[in-house]
UniProtKB/TrEMBL annotation:
Primary location recorded for the protein, binned into one broad class: membrane
Bilayer topology annotation: Multi-pass membrane protein
Alphabetically ordered keywords of this record: Membrane, Transmembrane, Transmembrane helix, Transport
Residues that span the membrane, as ranges: 53-70, 76-97, 215-234, 241-261, 267-294, 306-325, 337-356
Taxonomic source organism: Zea mays (Maize)
GO biological process, one term: D-glucose transmembrane transport
Major facilitator superfamily (MFS) profile domain segment(s): 1-360
One Pfam assignment: Sugar_tr
NCBIfam families found in the cross-reference section: SP
Name used for this protein in its record: Major facilitator superfamily (MFS) profile domain-containing protein
């Protein structure tokens, strides 16, 4: 029984996807959408990336609790029980959040509610979200500007598009960008690389590598550090530079891992460096930036449906990689499977360079008018 619990805890710590254990589809859909619609454009990237930072922090706390309880029968349950009070606090906090000002104004423009009433509600929502220090005039000007943008784009249309509208016009272009990013996020092997983390660190002589939970903590700390880099730089250097640099680093790390298992197995530092490069490159690019782009690229009318389909694409591709990994590992071996992931990473780099636009500093309405049309 003890052996079973220890094995399960270590297996969870290292081999599950670095995000799927604690995410739900509703949270993945709602959180970035709400943050994008309520954030000033100058700090939108930082705030949405902070969501990823706290997710990684949550993973790290789970690893720490799992490591402390790994020798106890049923100790793995503490990883889940520890998060319950935090989830309750989050639920209470979300209950107090106001409606999205953009959603309120869209409903008014579409004739679903009184314009004056919803304008007042939008101003009150902005005051709640941005604090009492924001002046009434600034809030009113923001609301008026948003009304003008929404009227120009959506007057006379239904307040919310259906699923099929996502595959038309500007929404299809947005889905190509957002869906493509979250697809490549998974099929570049992100869940699979961590599978080899323990063996790679063991070959390099790290004593902590004898305990999978300790390896997970080390990797979690590094992930947290690199995610912090993305948070502080995304609204400074922009989305595309982080994506291009990070995805390039992912491709290089995968080819280095392939070379290690093929011809460089006497040089374990190569594998350790490649592993850290992969984790760091992922956390400054695909990790936070993919969800940032998904949350801000869709037109307002189809934003909810579009993000839902992007989440479905992400979860579906994650399941595909997870289920296909073991058969591919047996068929190809680690060298060839890392080479395959490296080729896919190169394709994803080409996709980013040719398809993904820069959205730094643009309002959501400007993204729609300048990039999608």
């Amino acid at each position: 029984m003890i052996c079973l619990d220890e094995t399960w805890t270590s297996h969870v710590s290292l081999t599950v996807s670095n995000k799927e254990l604690r995410k739900t589809a509703m949270a993945m859909h709602g959180a970035p959408l709400y943050i994008a619609e309520t954030s000033p454009s100058q700090i939108r990237g930082t705030l949405i990336s902070l969501k990823e930072l706290f997710i990684v922090l949550g993973i790290l706390l789970g690893y720490l609790v799992g490591s402390l309880e790994i020798d106890n029968v049923g100790g793995w349950r503490y990883m889940f029980g520890f998060s319950a009070p935090l989830a309750a606090i989050m639920a209470i906090g979300m209950w107090t959040l106001p409606s999205s000002p953009r959603w309120l104004l869209l409903r008014a423009v579409q004739g679903k509610a009184s314009l004056e009433d919803n304008k007042k509600k939008a101003i009150q929502a902005l005051r709640t979200l941005r604090g009492r220090t924001a002046s009434e005039k600034v809030l009113a000007d923001d609301v008026d500007d948003t009304i003008v943008s929404i009227k120009a784009a959506y007057a006379g249309q239904e307040a919310e598009g259906n699923v099929w509208d996502v595959f038309e016009g500007a929404s299809l272009k947005a889905f190509t960008i957002g869906g493509g990013l979250v697809l490549f996020q998974q099929i570049t092997g992100q869940p699979s690389v961590l599978y080899y983390a323990a063996s790679i660190l063991q070959t390099a002589g790290f004593s902590a590598a004898s305990d999978a939970a300790k390896v997970a903590i080390l990797i979690g700390l590094f992930k947290l550090l690199m995610t912090g880099v993305a948070v502080f730089k995304v609204d400074d250097v922009g989305r595309r530079p982080l994506l291009i640099g990070g995805v390039g680093g992912i491709a290089l790390s995968l080819f280095l891992l392939a070379a290690y298992y093929k011809i460089l197995n006497n040089f374990p530092f190569v594998a350790v460096g490649a592993l850290l490069l992969y984790v760091g490159a992922y956390q400054v690019s695909f990790g936070p930036i993919s969800w940032l782009m998904v949350s801000e690229i869709f037109p307002l009318r189809t934003r909810g449906r579009g993000i839902s389909l992007a989440v479905l694409t992400n979860f579906g591709s994650n399941a595909l990689v997870t289920f296909a990994f073991s058969p591919l590992k047996e068929l190809l071996g680690p060298a060839n499977i890392f080479f395959l992931f490296g080729v896919i990473a190169v394709l994803s780099l080409v996709f980013v360079i040719l398809v993904v636009p820069e959205t730094k500093g643009l309002s959501l309405e400007e993204i729609e008018s300048k990039i999608l049309k």
